[in-house]
């Protein structure tokens, strides 16, 4: 096991630059720090000697010499990434540079409870290790994403609405039976934000990732790092009130954006419109399938159904009201919107944008870019891998 | 002039620890870093030799030896702190450890325009330097607080509602005529947040300072540092909508918290209650003075006036609605509330608290502490001094 505590601040900076980069030559890595060239080269040589970084092979260059690119060494060990969705589990092994070595996804029902789900996760992880020839001791860190609120320090779920029975289950203790590696647990939208941050090479310092599905959550990157707040509850934007006279929410308050514009609210509005005879197209779909989804609504809207488009615009407008409050407070550079409800399509995004620009101050939206989240292959497990790397080898002692 | 670029990361860490501390002995300073003791002692000796830190004299200790305390050296030079309020200017000279060397405050009217105000500021600064025997070249950095939105990078005001004529005025260029030192400009609530952060020795990593006066603004400390957002607009919470069916706001939208619960809205509600005969006490005050203030309202409420108390509770409730949205998003550990409207008294604070706790999620308020901002002597100029120190000697190269 590598002792990350023994890394100097300078060595950690070099590992950090390399991790967030798209690959750097020795010269580029040395130049990316404020060390002198000779000091940087000495430190790089030392990190290579200790098998913390390695050459990944020559890269094509524009005509001149072909510099050898450096990466975090695959010899250090692996990270395990576990992404638990409401209806699926993904288990992967990743190299420290986030190369996916093995990745399996299968259907699962979180309502079966944590013991059953984690028995399966453990088996999948064991199989992955066998395929890769990796022992349990070579696992450097484990990242776990779950679809519910997490107290990050303890790794425990807190009042998870979609995960009854998970609150008293310690994912850490469960995995500690087989792995000495530290285990980090976070909610799915923070994982999505970390994965996005890494894919963008850490270039954006202050941005948000919003996930709109059964609920609405937000991952926050602030000063270049994930921001979890005092209790791990930061980003719980689904219960921001957008209309004090609005409908009741399961949280006990009225007019929460989640009660007005998340997946179930959108489906309910579509079904009401169908039953009220406002949309023959939605009526036909409802009669055929017994229910309507945001995708049905998006299809109807794109086909020119006025009632469907009105619902899409209303829901987008409510999301935009919530985001306008967040933009006035946080002034982010980008908002990336993801989650199942984005399948509604471009009118939903346009409605969100219109509402945000109308209700935020001009200075806050001067450079604001609102778009759907970039599609990233293996996004969930990469996000958990990024978390595991950040919390182990890249973790610095608290500054004060 | 000290060349801060030449400081190593380690030296900067030592200066940083010292700046945020309440004074540290050599041993304490060495122990506060993760350097080896010998490396720390060498670096401390070098910083003393270069007159960047110095001994401040023996401090009383609990019986044993009396260690010499270290501080940032007064020989380095001074910081200038300029705090411009709507009706006053404060000008101070501070040592690098935030000792106030000279401080004058006088009435001023920002509506007279920036040229007139800064002619006076320049004169006050010159007089202060003469009293302290400090030349213009010994000024290391200048911090300026203004009561309006600032684009921090350019130091220019942007659409300042209370400061017509200031938008095209460059405070930097004006001060550059006499001073080579860098000039940093920020809004008053960020300055209040920085001053509070320093007085609390940087111990709180994630908290908010809300200022409720003519407008409503918020200073954000995130990951231990002031957070200004993409355009310097972060914390502009006055235009968060708390009721889409609410009254129109000068920003063009409806139901902004500033239009419903800032000083002018509170005074208006009090005057309406007085005219409607709901409060003989307020009626009498209105007849006598021609207007009502939040202080009048607070006095009436404390004297048992039901109509006054209802207005206080309503305004506090609206502030709380806005803060509940912010708490759900940001999950801070503390919210400190300041500004003239806090003179209303404890019922206002209680109403804010009740509204926040009712409308925020339980996990977000588990450790949340909401209170009036701690009273700090020379708060404004110390906040500008903290900004100047942070942006000069403690500024680090961007990490990525």
Automatic annotation (TrEMBL), chains A, B:
InterPro entries, sorted: ATPase_NBD (IPR043129), ROK (IPR000600), ROK_cs (IPR049874), WH-like_DNA-bd_sf (IPR036388), WH_DNA-bd_sf (IPR036390)
Coiled-coil regions, chain positions: none
Segments traversing the membrane: none
Gene3D superfamilies documented for this protein: 3.30.420.40, Winged helix-like DNA-binding domain superfamily/Winged helix DNA-binding domain
Domain of life from the UniProt record: Bacteria
Family membership: Belongs to the ROK (NagC/XylR) family.
Identification of the protein by name: ROK family protein
Species the sequence originates in: Azospirillum doebereinerae
Classification of source organism: Bacteria, Pseudomonadati, Pseudomonadota, Alphaproteobacteria, Rhodospirillales
């Amino acid at each position: 096991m590598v002792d990350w505590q023994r890394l100097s601040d300078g060595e950690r900076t070099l590992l950090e630059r390399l991790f967030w980069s798209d690959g750097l030559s020795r010269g580029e890595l040395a130049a990316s720090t404020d060390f002198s060239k000779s000091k940087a080269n000495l430190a790089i040589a030392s990190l290579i000697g200790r098998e913390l970084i390695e050459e990944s092979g020559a890269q094509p260059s524009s005509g001149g010499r072909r510099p050898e690119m450096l990466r975090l060494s695959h010899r250090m060990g692996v990270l395990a990434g576990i992404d638990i969705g409401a209806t699926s589990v993904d288990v992967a092994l990743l190299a420290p540079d986030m190369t996916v070595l093995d990745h399996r996804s299968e259907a699962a029902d979180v309502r079966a409870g944590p013991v059953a789900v984690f028995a399966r996760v453990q088996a999948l992880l064991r199989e992955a290790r066998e395929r890769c020839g990796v022992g349990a001791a070579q696992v450097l860190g484990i990242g776990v994403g779950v679809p519910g609120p997490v107290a990050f320090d303890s790794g425990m779920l807190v009042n998870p609405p979609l995960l009854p029975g998970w609150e008293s289950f310690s994912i850490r203790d469960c995995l500690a039976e087989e792995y000495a590696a530290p285990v980090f647990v976070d909610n799915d939208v923070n994982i999505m934000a970390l994965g996005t941050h890494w894919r963008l090479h850490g270039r954006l310092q202050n941005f948000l990732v919003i996930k709109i599905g059964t609920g609405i959550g937000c991952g926050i990157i602030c000063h270049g790092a994930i921001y979890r707040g005092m209790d791990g509850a930061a980003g719980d934007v689904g219960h921001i009130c957008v209309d004090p006279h609005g409908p009741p929410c399961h949280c006990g308050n009225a007019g929460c954006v989640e009660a007005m514009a998340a997946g179930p609210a959108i489906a309910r509005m579509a079904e009401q419109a169908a039953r009220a005879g406002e949309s023959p197209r939605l009526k036909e779909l409802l009669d055929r399938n017994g229910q309507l989804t945001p995708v049905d609504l998006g299809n109807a809207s794109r086909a020119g159904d006025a009632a469907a488009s009105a619902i899409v615009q209303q829901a987008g407008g409510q999301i935009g009201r919530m985001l306008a409050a967040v933009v006035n407070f946080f002034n982010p550079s980008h908002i990336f919107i993801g989650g199942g409800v984005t399948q509604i399509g471009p009118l939903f995004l346009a409605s969100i944008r219109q509402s945000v620009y109308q209700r935020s101050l001009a200075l806050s939206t001067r450079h604001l870019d609102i778009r759907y989240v970039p599609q990233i292959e293996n996004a969930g497990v990469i996000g958990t891998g990024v978390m595991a790397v950040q919390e182990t080898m890249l973790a610095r002692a608290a500054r004060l």
